[in-house]
Amino acid sequence: MWVVENAAHGNRAYCTLNEGLGAVLRYGAFGDEVYERLRWMRDRLAPALARAIELHGPVDLRTLLAQALQMGDEGHNRNRAGTSLLIRELAPALVRANADRERIAEVLAFLHANDHFFLNLTMPAGKCALDAAAEQSGSSLVTVMARNGTEFGIRLSGTGDRWFTAPAPRVDGLYLPGYGPDDAAPDIGDSAITETAGYGGFAMATAPAIVQFVGGSPALAVETTERMRRITLAESPVYQIPSLSFRGTPTGIDVLRVVETGIVPAINTGIAHRLPGIGMVGAGLVTPPLACFRDAARALAETLEGEDDAR
Amino acid sequence: MWVVENAAHGNRAYCTLNEGLGAVLRYGAFGDEVYERLRWMRDRLAPALARAIELHGPVDLRTLLAQALQMGDEGHNRNRAGTSLLIRELAPALVRANADRERIAEVLAFLHANDHFFLNLTMPAGKCALDAAAEQSGSSLVTVMARNGTEFGIRLSGTGDRWFTAPAPRVDGLYLPGYGPDDAAPDIGDSAITETAGYGGFAMATAPAIVQFVGGSPALAVETTERMRRITLAESPVYQIPSLSFRGTPTGIDVLRVVETGIVPAINTGIAHRLPGIGMVGAGLVTPPLACFRDAARALAETLEGEDDAR
Fold first, then answer.
1. For the whole model, what pTM was predicted?
2. Which of A270, A253, A223 lies closest to A119, judged by CA?
3. Fewer beta carbons below 10 Å: N end or C end of chain A?
4. Chain A: nearest CA to B72, how far in angstroms?
5. A256: buried, middle or exposed (CB in 10 Å: 19+, 13-18, 0-12)?
6. The domain B135-310: what is its CATH number?
7. Could B88 and A88 be called an inter-chain contact, meaning their C-beta atoms sit closer than 8 Å?
């Protein structure tokens, strides 16, 4: 498990190690292939990585992600650069901290074969950043977007731990060989924390090559990032897009701007099979339901009215 | 030394291992720091890499470079992605093929600290591609651009091993701390083989972050690639630019188009100190002298007239 800490605020987030694509537990796959990989990760990968991290010291995720966003990743469905940067950052310590060369080589080969390995660091990095902004009275900042295959839900900073939900939408995407839209479950997973934190779909302009994985065109990628500027509160001073003259990624979704404009957050995501046991079958673009943003804005307003009454 | 082979044509090119930036032999630096690094490279790095390559087998440079160009490298002055991809490609074999873990870790740390390591593979890759196109009767293809700090010289496919030269220009660029234009030697080095092969300056559009290293703006980077389409014969089917809807990089400089349009090839390059012993002091953009292209075109015409006379 990764432990990610917000150095400024002290809060932590946690994430499993990424198994890869296809038949993986996090997309609902099970069976011998899945269990065998998980056992190898538990027995071989995790202890080797833990020793490497202990020797290396904390990895500066913000710097790695900032670099990766300048190398064609958007930090959600394209993580080839981030994974590459993590490998080269940890490799010397991995070698120094582990005695068994064959195991080190196995670990390096696994990381090399899994371009999504860095995803399970971008997600808790976003969670860490957003948790620090949670539960601020009156704040219209969206602090969580998550889906469970049935409902799409959000939380606002100003409404605490309340969920505002609506039916989970379908994903419009590209499929792995042998699968198609009829196999797809509705939108699922908590990876949309990356978009909530200002990258992923919000940073698509910096990752035009991602359209080969999630569909769309390079022009759509740029248009998507620009559209997200209309519903966000700021531009990241750290996560920059070179092709847009180094402008920061649109960061901090304002539920009021979503409701005013009718523009919903753009999410890139993986697609799970609708039946248990099979796993990931594709990736694509999601249009979240506007209803939960409307409900959240209304609840925020009621909260403020309540406070006014109390004064 | 790297040995790079053109698998389709069997010809080879060779290159040293990249030392890094700053005080390095290839930019004319000398002294203990330089010698010590070179001795370490000879005694520790090179044997370890050689064993890794022997175990791994040939590295597919075309695939690595194609990926790197989709990750914000242009393959001449920005090679962070290529270096990262090479590290992760070779790391498992490096660990398996070498017994001494401390040496493996040293090698991985050196590669991690030198984002230009992949440059010394993109150069011979370009040389290999272009040598296969050399010495074709009547061809107006530019097969070499090189500079020696005094002269800028080119060769054409249709004029064999003749050099056409003009005074080497100044480089317009950014300098390492403590240096400025007064310290700079005129344009020097054979790295412009990358532009001759269709990447480097010709692929700047895919590497907008490079402007922080060589100067200019992201808009200039795109404009440069588009301008190069007017003097080239084709678009690469392999080296693609995602942000330009995956169009290929402009490839194959036609000396006739250079002379007709007056547009000279765009080159990104490092800047050497004008005095021996110091090394690299910056990086920037070069505008080659049109005169050598004019002379080459005239000589090509004379060659063809000679052939006509002979018929």
1. 0.96
2. A270
3. C
4. 5
5. middle
6. 3.90.1700.10
7. yes
